[in-house]
Amino acid sequence: MSETTTSSSFLTQDAYDRLSSELEHLKGEGRSDIAKRIEAAREEGDLKENGGYHAAKEEQGKMEARIRQLESLLRDAVVGEAPKDNGIVDSGMVVTVEMFGDTETFLLGSREIAGDADIDVYSEQSPLGEAIMGKKVGEETSYDAPNGKTIDVKIVDAKPYAG
User: Fold this and answer.
1) How far is CA 78 from the centre of its chain?
2) Rounded distance, CA 47 to CA 24, Å?
3) DSSP percent split of the chain into helix, strand, coil, nearest 5
4) Nearest Cα to Cα of residue 80 among 15, 141, 31
5) Which ranges constitute the DSSP H helices of the chain?
6) Which one, of 124, 127, 118, lies nearest residue 93 by Cα?
7) For residue 136, what pLDDT is reported?
8) Which 3 state secondary structure label does DSSP give 72?
9) Three-state DSSP class for residue 143
10) For residue 124, what are the CA distances in angstroms to 18, 27, 87?
11) Distance between CA atoms of 89 and 137, rounded to whole angstroms?
12) How many CA atoms does the CB half-sphere of 44 hold within 13 Å?
């Protein structure tokens, strides 16, 4: 392979806008609020036994990690319209597949497309995601699982995510 694969993710314009707003809030108001909480806790005295200070510092660390995650995701995102409802598997679709005699339904794309929705998400770069990308409803394919086994998959349904 001479080409380097980047880990870009498909996002709808709505998801991109929602994540951009979250990032803007965290970098502005969020950072300001946490700094005030840390300062208020610091003024209470002994930092070794100050639970409020340690909790605020831990929250600050989580917030900064989320900021880095959002910056990376938004920088590398491929933003577009929701995929067409044509029965062909693409990023941003809810796909139902048959594997091992059972059906499984999931969103193909980024967890961020789903927001708070309770749905499993598989990346387009996962072995399953790569195997089914571009396949039509009714088609069968297979992929090699990380354990070396070949897994047969049939596409049962593919609809654009309507979050």
Assistant:
1) 13
2) 30
3) 40, 25, 35
4) 15
5) 13-25, 31-42, 51-76, 111-114, 127-132
6) 124
7) 96
8) helix
9) strand
10) 21, 29, 17
11) 8
12) 14
Q: Backbone phi, then psi, for 58, in 5-degree steps? A: -65, -45
Residues 6+ apart with CB under 8 A from 64: none
Residue 91: name the closest of 130, 41, 38, 143 by CA: 130
Q: How far is residue 129 CA from its own chain's centroid? A: 14
Query: DSSP code of 96?
Result: E
- Reported pTM: 0.62
Mean pLDDT by 10 residues, the chain (163 residues): 48 83 94 91 79 88 92 82 82 92 90 79 90 95 91 94 74
User: 50: helix, coil or strand?
Assistant: coil
How many Å apart are CA 61 and CA 151, to the nearest integer?
A: 40
Q: Cβ contacts of residue 133 below 8 Å, gap of 6+?
A: 89, 90, 91, 108, 124
Residue 123 confidence (pLDDT): 87
What is Dmax (Cα atoms) for the chain? Answer: 67
